[in-house]
Write a structure and sequence with these properties.
Shape: globular
Strand order of the largest sheet: 1-2-3-5-6-7-8-9-10-11-12-13
Order of helices and strands: HEEEEEEEEEEEEEH
Number of strands: 13
Largest sheet: 12 strands, antiparallel, barrel
Helix content: 10-25%
Distance between the termini: 9 Å
Mean pLDDT: 88
Structural class: mainly beta
Number of helices: 2
Oligomer: single chain
């Protein structure tokens, strides 16, 4: 009951007030950054079909560990819309190339179940898009839209696996609400490399998007750690396995910093204990 109440509270807060997922992959994880820690990404990403290719980049992402088990999130992108102008797909994918600021993504990640020897961690990463892009030029949706997912993660030595399912809610004309989900497996290789592969699927997103039909992609990618974890190079590429032809790519640089004090560590432990008591009750 307490977990259900928390989900309801999150939904009310965010609606009254997406999107790129866990870099460099499309599947996200439930693990927030540590309390009073920070993450910064500089990246470029592309997602396209034979109808049109949409890009974000240069773009920046910032995450802040505002509370134990909670981090706040924002992405500010420069977007590009590159229609194929193929008469086969008309009237979709017809028009000029457009460039400008895209919709700004904000969100909150919350982990409500901690990982143990036999139990995965579980959390959500609710995101909503501010209509900052010019919808008339195809650089934005024109209305606020949001994602509500549920993610789980478990680690086994050098192996980590995570995934889940969510719903994207869009009410703007030409767009539609759809379900998405994915699962990923990754492995640390030595001290410098982490590589992984994911299966990611989404429903049809609407006639105003390149993803007019459902697709399931297989993506591969990973991280090269110049400093672990302070400075990393991220990369991924994926292609459709089932459904509409689609290509996904991501490349970026990642920095993280911050220092956990003894006080914040004790607060984190206390909140974790209280949350677990509430869930058992």
């Amino acid at each position: 009951m307490r977990v259900a109440s928390l989900f309801a509270l999150l939904a009310i807060l965010l609606v009254s007030t997406a999107a790129w997922a866990g870099p460099p992959f499309q599947t996200d994880d439930p693990e927030p950054i540590d309390f009073r820690h920070y993450e910064f990404y500089s990246f470029a990403a592309s997602d396209g079909t034979p109808i049109e290719t949409d890009t974000a980049g240069p773009a920046v992402e910032f995450n802040w560990g505002a509370l134990p088990n909670v981090h706040l999130h924002i992405i500010i992108p420069v977007a590009a819309i590159l229609p194929s102008n193929n008469p086969r797909f008309a009237p979709s994918g017809i028009g000029p190339n457009e460039y400008g600021v895209g919709d700004i993504e904000t969100g909150i990640k919350y982990r409500f179940v901690q990982e143990s020897k036999h139990r995965p961690m579980i959390g959500t990463f609710v995101m909503f898009e501010l209509p900052s892009g010019d919808a008339g030029r195809g650089l934005g949706v024109g209305k606020t839209w949001y994602k509500v997912p549920l993610w789980a993660q478990k680690s086994f030595g050098p192996w980590t696996t995570y995934g889940g399912v969510g719903e994207t809610v869009v009410t703007a004309r030409g767009y539609r609400t759809f379900t998405y989900g994915g699962w990923l497996v990754q492995r640390d290789i030595g001290k410098k490399w982490t590589v992984g592969t994911e299966v990611f699927s989404h429903g049809a997103e609407g006639v105003a998007t390149p993803q007019t039909k459902a697709a399931t992609l297989v993506d591969v990618g990973g991280y090269y750690k110049f400093r672990d974890p302070g400075f990393q190079f991220l990369f991924a590429y994926g292609h459709t396995a089932i459904g509409q032809t689609e290509n996904y790519a991501y490349v970026g640089l990642y920095w993280t910093w911050g220092k956990k004090s003894d006080k914040s560590a004790h607060l984190n432990d206390a909140l974790d204990l209280n949350l677990m008591k509430g869930i058992r009750q």
